[in-house]
Amino acid sequence: MRLLIWRDAAHFDRFEDLPCALCGTPTPMRSHTQEPVHKVCAEQWNDAHPEAPRYRAGTRDLGTQRFHDDAPTPSKQTTVRQLPKRAAPEAMTLQLPTTERKSA
After folding, report:
1. Helical ranges in 18-77 per DSSP H
2. 79/61 Cα distance (integer angstroms)
3. Minimal CA–CA distance to 64: which of 43, 34, 40?
4. Rounded distance, CA 34 to CA 10, Å?
5. Could you tell me the sign of the dihedral formed by the alpha carbons of 38, 44, 48, 50, in that order?
6. Bigger pLDDT: 63 or 95?
7. By CB neighbour count within 10 A (0-12 exposed, 13-18 middle, 19+ buried), where does 88 fall?
């Protein structure tokens, strides 16, 4: 099952919980059309309705038209930056100081 990306604050209503359109229990979550729905319920609905019309942003498939991902924005970095490879440090033996015991 594909998980939805709902990072925008518009998906959360901090003032009122309404009954989920799919399961009926209260939720502060909202879809893109302000439909009250749990994110998990929306993901399960998308999984159960693969033939539903799709929402696309350019060439990207963001999910169904009813429940879809937040559209990518230019400010969001979409590529992963690769760090330069560094050579592993050489192994060194650990030299502990020896302590002499005093005889009594």
Report:
1. 39-48
2. 17
3. 43
4. 8
5. positive
6. 63
7. exposed
3-state helix, strand, coil in the chain (%, to 5): 10, 15, 70
Q: Cβ(17)–Cβ(26) under 8 Å?
A: yes
Q: What are phi and psi of 40, to 5 degrees?
A: -65, -40
> What pLDDT does 94 receive?
80
Confidence of residue 44 (pLDDT cuts 50, 70, 90): very high
Whole-structure pTM value: 0.66
**pLDDT for residue 103:** 67
Coil, strand or helix: which one is 42? helix
